[in-house]
Design brief:
single chain, Cytidine Deaminase, domain 2, 2 domains, nine-stranded mixed beta sheet, eight-stranded mixed beta sheet, 19 strands, 25% strand, elongated, thiosulfate-cyanide sulfurtransferase activity
Length: 447
């Protein structure tokens, strides 16, 4: 999701402030955390400007007073953030386009900021009643503009090259051409290549996902063969991600697949999460889920988390349960829904030496029951939830629980906790790289 990301709530607030009842152009100033490696901007704040901020304002142009630009440059230089200049074209039909007047005005602002705040990477955004576009301020280079929440939307710019319409014809009839194109251009990360991860990857490949990264530290064992989609007895000893890559490429030969043998809790991998467009969280590790959960809100990268549990007592199955939950701004995080065990997170982040010395860690992990059909059911719910978030298909569920014994999927309701460290504005929300991600530092690998 390279480009400018903002929460859906921030976008709605700006639309109301700048466009409702507008008789003239209006402006707002925002500040974003910029990462040059992934070419992303995470918008943290934005406010519309008061009426006395303008030298001139009418239906086709708005010129800001010099003191506004001085304040913007000073704040950008002091904070290390990149200013985002929003303005409106109130009469635009469809997604608005930048005008020649915009070109001239941006060139002057660009020259000023390059002198006063040279480290900043400012953007310009034009908003209209039916869309918006973004670009590098003063350079004309288009930048994707995303809103992230329960729905993920790409505003204004093209959704990508046409996908294989013959192959995907039946999907296009359901998802729409734009939805299919968006799926093919999204940069997707799958964390965990085991039971739910391999099932999710298989479905994503059939859907036409063309840029997929999968990370998992483990190798195929004989006990995995009952549920690891795409694996065969000859694969025992291979990295799970190698099997996953082979499967995806076999289904979609044009897909780009990066297979990483590693643990997402390690800093070198965790710090890459912000460069992805969508994440599928398919592990049973509380530490990995805690880190990816926070990253979802910190970098505005939507995540679908899934989990499965089969309980056996006295040789009989007593419960088959599953959970699928989307993590995105405006939705509660795993901490808020009680899905994380903080003590388990602590234990899983220990090195082998620390674990051996910790009096609270007793014994090793006991293998849990696992069945391919239950894993696949949760993966299907997760992928369908993803489709509801990124396409026009009206799938509204963002938090579901599954009772396998009763054959029931329930839509769950939950609220975010005030002041939550992960999903609130008092915590990591939209803080980008300016907020610590609790990953395992380099040199402290889990063994």
């Amino acid at each position: 999701m390279s480009g400018l990301r903002m929460t859906g709530a921030a976008h709605t607030t700006l639309e109301r402030a700048l466009l409702e009842g507008a008789a003239t152009e209006r402006c707002a100033i925002g500040y974003a955390h910029h990462d040059s490696a992934s070419a992303t901007w995470v918008l943290e704040t934005a406010e519309s400007l008061p009426d006395d901020s303008y030298d001139r304002r009418d239906r086709v142009a708005a010129t800001l007073k010099s003191h506004v630009l001085i304040e913007v440059a000073n704040h950008a230089r002091a904070s290390g953030m990149s200013p985002i200049f929003f303005h409106t074209h109130p009469d635009a039909v469809g997604a608005p386009h930048f005008s020649a007047i915009d070109d001239r005005g941006e060139a002057e602002i660009r020259d000023y900021l390059e002198r006063r705040a040279p480290a900043a990477a400012p953007l310009a955004v034009v908003m209209g009643p039916q869309g918006a576009r973004a670009r590098r301020l003063g350079y004309g280079e288009p930048v994707d503009l995303w809103t992230v929440g329960a729905d993920v939307r790409l505003l204004g710019n093209d959704h990508g090259a046409a996908s294989d319409e013959a192959r995907n014809d039946r999907q296009i009839r359901a998802l729409g051409r734009e939805g299919q194109q968006l799926i093919s251009r999204l940069k997707i990360l799958v964390v965990g290549a085991g039971g739910t991860g391999s099932a999710s990857l298989q479905q994503l490949a059939y859907l036409g996902a063309s840029d997929v990264t999968v990370i998992d530290p483990d190798r195929v064992e004989e006990s995995n063969l009952n549920r690891l989609i795409g694996a065969a007895p000859a694969d025992i000893g291979l990295p799970k991600v190698a099997v996953a890559r082979r499967m995806v490429e076999g289904i979609n030969p044009t897909a780009r697949v990066e297979a990483i043998v590693g643990d997402i809790v390690d800093q070198e991998f965790a710090e890459r999460i912000g460069g992805f467009d969508f994440v599928f969280l398919c592990t049973d590790s509380h530490a990995s889920r805690a880190i990816v959960c926070q990253a979802a809100y910190q970098f505005l990268v939507p995540v679908v988390d899934m989990g499965v549990s089969i309980t056996v007592a006295d040789g009989a199955v007593t419960h088959i349960t599953g959970r699928v939950q989307m993590l995105a701004p405006g939705l509660p995080c795993l901490t808020c829904t009680g899905a994380l065990d903080s003590e388990q997170v602590r234990r899983e982040m220990l090195t082998p030496e620390q674990r051996a010395a910790d009096p609270y860690v007793v014994g090793g992990r006991v293998p849990q029951p696992a069945v391919v059909s239950v894993n696949s059911s949760m993966a299907s719910l997760a992928v369908t939830m993803f489709l509801g978030a990124v396409t026009a298909v009206p799938v509204r569920a963002r938090y579901q629980r599954y009772d396998g014994l009763q054959g029931v999927v329930r839509l769950m309701a939950a609220r975010s906790r005030t002041g939550c460290i992960a999903c609130s504005g008092d915590g990591a929300l939209a803080k980008g790289g300016n907020w610590p991600l609790p990953a395992r530092p380099k040199g402290r690998r889990h063994g």
